[in-house]
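ingest -> fold -> write
write: protein_1
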Amino acid sequence: MKVLGLAWQLLRYKPGLVFGGFLSDVLFFLQPLAASFVAREIFNQIEGATGWGIGINIWILVLLILPLTMVLRLVGDFVFVFTMWVFFLSGSVLLRRNMLRGIFKKPGAAALPDSPGEAVSRFRGDIDEVMWFVYHITAVCSLGVFTGLSFYVMQGIDWRITVYVSIPFTLMMVLVYFTRPIFTRLRKQRRKAAGAVTRTIGEIFRSVQAIKVATAEDNVLNYFRGINEKRRIAEVKDEFFHRLIHAIYYVTIYLCIGIILLLVGSNLSNNLFSVGDLSFFVGVLGALGEFVWDLGDMIPRYIRTKVSLDRMFKLITGSDPAVTEFDLVKHGPIYIKDDFPPIQPLKLNETDKLVRFDARKLSYTHPNSDKGIKNINMTIMRGTFTVITGRIGSGKTTLLRALLGLLPKDDGSLYWNNKAIDKPEEFFVPPRTAYTSQVPRLFSESIKENILMGLPEESVNIEESIKLAVIEKELKDFDKRLDTLIGPKGVKLSGGQRQRLAAARMFARESEILIFDDLSSALDVETEQLLWKRVFAKEGTTCLAVSHRPIALKRADNVIVMKDGKIEAQGKLGDLLKTSEEMRRLWEEKIMQKPDSIIAQTD
C-alpha cells in the first residue's frame, strides 16, 4: 500500500486549503521563535550583554512586538483550524464517496467482505485515521520550518550546545522507529476489536425477534459484554503504549534543559553565553520537542494509516484487476455546498429491447464451500413466464443472483439478444431488469420515497405500480397514504406488505424482465392470484420467478427444476409431472400441504 502516494493525492484534492493551513501553521509556530528572540533581547539589555546589535528599545519589545506576535499566533491558529477542518471534512467525504462507488461496482450479493456493521467501522474509524495522518503531514512540515530557523539561530549562538541538545531528540526518534512493530500489532488488535463490536450491534438489532423467541437475551448480553471487554483491553493497551512514548518525549525536553544548564555554567561566568542566550534555548525547546515528537509520531501513525488503508481497500477490491488503491483517493465532486445532480435514468433504444436472454454453462461456487450452481443452460424469451423451483438449498436464489451479476460467475456466459454481457453487474439494471429479493430492502422513508428511490416523481406512474403490487387497499388504511413513514426496514408493515411495496418499486422501473425471488411466500393465495393476473394483463411482460406455489407453476411457460445446484429438468408443468420424478415429489409435497379449498383453486 503506497501510503505517502495516497496521502499526496488527498493533499492535492484541496490545494488552496492545504496551502492556507500550512502558511497559517507556520505563522502560529513562528510566535514562540519571535517571543524567544524578544525575551533574549530583553534579558541581554537588562544584563548589559551585547545582542545582535538591533538596538530596539526594551519598552518597544515589551509593549509592541511581543503583543504583535501573540496576535499573529491567534490569527494563525484560527485560520489553520478553519482551513484544515474544512479540508479534513472534505477529504473524509471524498474517501467515503469513493468507497461507496467501489462497493456499488461489485456484485451486489458479494459486495462486502464482512458484515455491514464491521464495514461501518471502516467508514468511520479508518477514514478518520487516514485523515489525521494527512493532517499531521502539514503540521510536521510547518514545524519543520520553525525547527530549521531555530537551529540556525541556535548554532549561531553556540553550535556545540546545539549538537548536544539534538542527541536526546535523535535517540527518542530511534526509539519510536524500533517500536513500530508493537504499534502495528496493537493498532490491528484495536481496529479488529472495534469492528467486532460494531458488527455484533448490527447483528443484534437485525435479530431482535429471533433473540426474543429463543429467550436468549442474557446469553446475547453476556457475549456483548465479553467482546466489549476485549475491545476495552485492546484500546487500553494501544493508548497506554502511545502515552508511554509521549511521556518519554516530555522527559527528553527536561533532559535537554538539564544538558543546557550543565554546559553553559562556565560560559555564563566567562560571559561567553548570556542569560538571554539561555532564555532563547529554553524558550524554543518546547516547540523543538513537539517537532521531534510529531516527526517520531509519524512512524506509528504511518503504520496505523497503512492498516486502515488496507482495511478500506478490501471493501472496494474484488475480481476486477483494474481496481487499485488509488481509486480510494480519486478526485471527484462531493457536493458539500452544491445540490446533488438529478438522477439520469438509463434509456433503452430499440436494439436494447429484450428478444431473448440466454445463460450458457453458468457456474458459481460459494467461497469455502462446494455449494452453488453448475453448468446452467437456460433461455428466456420475451413475453414468457419462467419459474425456478426446487428444494431448499438446491441453488434457486444463487441462480438468480448469478444471472443478474449479483454474484461473480466462475464460468459460463450470459447473452442479451445474442450479445455477450461482459459485466452483468453493470448491465442488468433497470430498465433492463428489475429484481425483488427474498428479503426486500426498505428504508426509513415514506412509501412514496421507497417506490421512487430517487426517480423524478413525474416520470413514474406510482398509482399503476401500487395497483400492480395489489397494495392499494392497505394504502387507504394509512392516514398519510403515500406519505406514511414505514420505519427502519419497513418495520411498520407486515411481511406481505413489505414484499408488495418492494414489488411496486420494481414495477415503477418498467423493466424488460421482472425478477421475483419467492415473492409469493408472504402472500395469501387470493392476493397472489390477483398479482399474477395484473402483471400478465400487460402484453409482452417477461417474468422470471423463484416459486413453489402451484398457482405460479401452473401459469408458467417454462418451469426449471433445480437439484443440487444443477437443472434437473425444465419444461411445462404438465410435461414435467410426467417425466421428472423430482418435479412429481415437489408437486405432491406442496399440494399435500394445502387445504382442499386451495387445491381446488390451483386445479
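write: protein_2
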Amino acid sequence: MTEAALKARQRLIEGNERFVTGKSTTKAIDMTKMEELAAKGQKPFALIVCCSDSRVPPELIFDQGFGDIFVVRTAGNVVDEVCLGSIEYGAEHLDIPLIVVLGHEGCGAVKATVDGGPAHGALKAITDKINVSYSRLKASKNIYAECEDENIKNTISDIKNNSLIAHLISQGKTEVIGAKYGIHSGKVSFF
C-alpha cells in the first residue's frame, strides 16, 4: 500500500476510535471549513463506498467533517456504472489515494437477498449483484455475515476491474480495500 493510502487508512482508524470511545472532534457545522471548501474546492483524503443504511453514516463513524471523505452510497454497497463513474471521478480528478468498500453487520439488502424474497423493478439490480456473492457460499449458521463479507469482496473486485481504477492502481495512485462496520459496537474492522 502506498504511503498516502496508509495515512488515509490510519486517519480513518483514528477517527473511528474517537467515534467508538465517544471522543469525536468533528463539529456538526464548521462554517469556516464550508467557506474554504466553496472557495478552494474539495480535497478528500479517502473515498468510501458504503450502504445507504441510515445506521451507517460514514462521516460520523470515521469522525470526519466537510470535505474530508468522498462518499458513494447504495443499498448493499454494490456498484453499477453510475457508481463506478463517481468512483472514477474521485480517484482520477480528486486524486484520492484510498477507496474503502464499507459493508456492515445486519445489512438489510443482504438479508433480503439471502432470504430469497421477490425483488422487482430497480431493487432487482441490487439483489442480482448480491446474489453473485451469495451463490459462492454454502449454507451455514453465519450465512448473513458470510454473505456480507463476500459482498464487500465482490464490490472490491468490481471496482478493481474497472479499467481506469486498474490503471490508477498500477500507477500507485489509488488503492482499494474493504472494511466492515459493527452496528452494535460502532467499530470498523479493515480487511
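write: annotation protein_2
The mean pLDDT is 94.
The chain has eight helices and five strands.
pipeline exit 0
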